Amino acid sequence: MSTAGASAAVPSEGGAPGGTAGAPAVVPGDNGRPGGRLRGDAADGPAAGGGTVPLPDVPEPLLAGYLDAALAALRAAPSADLPGALRQYQTWTPRRLRHPRVLALVRRSLEADPGFRTAVDRRILDEEETLARLLRSGRHGDALASGEPPETVARVGIALGRDGAAAVQAAAEAAVADQARAEAARAEAARAEVEGELDAARARVEAEAAAARTARDDARAARDELRRSERQVQSLVERTQALEQELVHAHAAVQAARAEAASEQRRLNGRLAEVQARLAESQRQLRALRRASNRVDPMVVEAVGVLERDLAALRRATGLPEQSSPGAVQGGVRRPARREPLPVPPGRDADHPETLLAWMGTPGVLVLVDGYNVTKHEQGFPDRSLEDQRTLLVDLCRRLARRFSTQITVVFDGADVAPVHTKKVGVGAVGVVFTDAERIADDEIVAMVNTEAPERPVVVVSSDNELRERAAALGASVTRSTALLGLSAR
């Protein structure tokens, strides 16, 4: 640090009677008011001889506080009292004033303009009056020991000029000591970090060693397991050879069983010829019954249906060819042996209205409706007269028949009307059948199902469980009355 510059920074304590050491004298300006121009004391001021006063050679952090005071004086002083080079920066913000170019210009002004330098010194000494007294008395060590930052001590020491040179030197040494302590602390922290990393590396090495020992143990266990597996493989090979011997014996037994089965097959062929003869006779009788009349007694119809089912099961069990079944080729077209019910749409059941709609859309379908079973249902028209019931049901069936171009026949018990013989009345697209007084609608519907060709799909609408079973036995699709009533609002 240059002590010569520091000693010439401010006048001696006696330069201004009753004033603070280093305080500048104020010379009136041209307008007659104090503070027109700042200069040093004529006898002892730093520029008394017309020379410059350099700032002490201290580290930048120690000089930063003094420069901050110079920037504050720059902003607070009248423009006429400032050096000409600094006047343009007076209105700048503190942040902009810290630009390196501005700070360099301020430093040059402090060293070249004693008046500006004195104003800055006075501002600092006024703010730190107590610390200035300690430093003038040479007690800078006490100031530093009491906790004053080296930067503050250096700032006041620079403002005191030669009286503060020792303080500036002590502040610089304290700053160096603080920096050394900080570096020592950082070195200690780095050492602790390295020791921590060393401990972590040591722990990783120990963990890897433990893992290696575990791996060796696992390898030893795997080797033992491999030996056990080899012994088991040898045992399985021996077992396989024994099973192959058993397989040879079993193959011989199968050959003997096949020979016995061939003998049994020849015996069954004789029985089959007998069954085929009985089947042909049954078919002949069935055709004769169908030719005899289009109206067969319901009991006979059911018996024939049962006979057909039994014959079909017998054909499947005996493996008879298809041409020997009642569904033989007629007129060049194969007819099915038995009527098959229509499939139920996915996600529905047979009693759902949507299922009945799907069935009505099937080409050639015949829908047979158990009349009073539908109208007298609790969801039907049970509180209306019989005539109104018949009218409402026939109207509903007519709408559906026109919509789907479907043949619908409604069967009513004839006992509920004036005595008539069984007859079919055409009502638009719907057929209406009234049975004889001694004949019920269930028997009529079963007979109608049986007289239809097996390849034609038939749907029976009734909630009568007995009728549903009898119709289903003949291959008809059955649905409850609620399915038809559910379509009344559509």
Structure write-up:
The structure is a single chain. With about 500 residues, this protein is an alpha/beta fold. The protein has 16 helices and ten strands. Helix 15 links the parallel strand 9 (about 460) and strand 10.
Mean pLDDT across all amino acids: 77
Number of helices: 16
Sheet of most strands: 6 strands, mixed
- Quote the distance from N terminus to C terminus: 109 Å
In short:
By secondary structure, the chain is of the alpha/beta class.
Question: Which terms would index this structure?
Answer:
490 residues; alpha/beta; six-stranded mixed sheet; 16 helices; 10 strands; 58% helix; elongated; disordered N terminus
Helix/strand layout:
Blueprint: H1 3-7, E1 25-27, E2 37-39, H2 60-76, H3 94-97, H4 100-112, H5 114-127, H6 129-136, H7 140-145, H8 150-160, H9 165-292, H10 298-318, E3 329-330, E4 333-334, H11 353-360, E5 366-370, H12 371-375, H13 386-404, E6 407-412, E7 423-427, E8 430-434, H14 441-451, E9 458-461, H15 465-473, E10 477-479, H16 481-485
Parallel strand pairs: 5-6, 5-9, 6-8, 9-10
Antiparallel strand pairs: 1-2, 3-4, 7-8
Helix pairs in contact: 2-5, 2-8, 5-8, 6-8, 8-9, 10-14
